[in-house]
Amino acid sequence: MGLFSSKPVNAAASGHLAIYGYEGCSYHYRAIQRANETAAATGGKLTVESQTWPRPQFKQWAAAESQKLGVRHSTSPFVTLDGKFLGGCDDTLAWLDSAGR
Question: Are the C-beta atoms of residues 20 and 50 closer than 8 Å to each other?
Answer without folding.
Answer: yes
